[in-house]
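My current task is to audit a protein record that another person submitted. I need someone to confirm that the token line plausibly describes how this chain folds. Take the sequence as given and treat only the tokens as open to question. This is what I was given:
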Amino acid sequence: IRLVVEEGLNQLPYTECTVTTPTGHKYEGVRFEKGNCGVSIMRSGEAMEQGLRDCCRSIRIGKILIQSDEETQRAKVYYAKFPPDIYRRKVLLMYPILSTGNTVIEAVKVLVEHGVQPSVIILLSLFSTP
């Protein structure tokens, strides 16, 4: 999970900076530009939150609960909680196992309804099936 999160973070804009380690050594590193957040699609997406927190301790994380209706097999949103300024942020959408894609499509629709541009949504997924 951590490797997928790190690859997603590589897609975010950053600036180079000098970091002082706890032992006092200088190191050339990078600093992410402000305005990034994660959104986990509950329940399985929550498994990726710790990997994101390990890499970016202060990152804001939103949640969305989407389940398929048993009769229609359509994805339905039951809960969504995002940072209030999500429309200004780049979003790492976390959903580890992608099958039909209906859940992710619905999640992107909800994010767009909250003002997020589709071009700033990065999907983090471990497995995808045809």
